[in-house]
Design a protein that fits this description.
The N and C termini lie far apart (36 Å). The longest helix has 19 residues, at 46-64. It contains 1 helix and 4 strands. It is of the alpha+beta class. The radius of gyration is 18 Å and the shape is elongated. It has one domain (6-64).
Length: 71
C-alpha cells in the first residue's frame, strides 16, 4: 500500500507559532491529521483517497454510458 501523501506540514517554533514546513514522511497514514512533538501534519486518510477514486470511476462510467455529456 502506498502511504497517503500529505497536504501540509507545520512546525511549531519557539514562540509557539505554527510555521509552514516541507512535508516529511506521513506520521499517521490512517489519520487525516496528526501531531508528534512540534510537527503538525494534514492530509487525507487512505479511505478518503479510495472514496475519491471510486467517485472518479463512477463519473467516467456515467460519461461512457452517455448519462452525462461533455463538451
Amino acid at each position: 500500500m502506498i502511504t497517503p501523501p500529505l497536504i501540509a506540514q507545520f512546525e511549531i517554533d519557539e514562540a509557539g507559532i505554527a510555521q509552514t514546513a516541507p512535508p516529511g514522511s506521513n506520521l499517521e497514514p490512517h489519520n487525516g491529521a496528526s501531531r508528534q512533538g512540534d510537527t503538525l501534519q494534514f492530509g487525507l486518510k487512505q479511505s478518503e483517497i479510495d472514496d475519491i477514486w471510486q467517485r472518479i470511476q463512477d463519473l467516467l462510467a456515467a460519461v461512457d454510458a452517455g448519462r452525462l455529456s461533455t463538451f
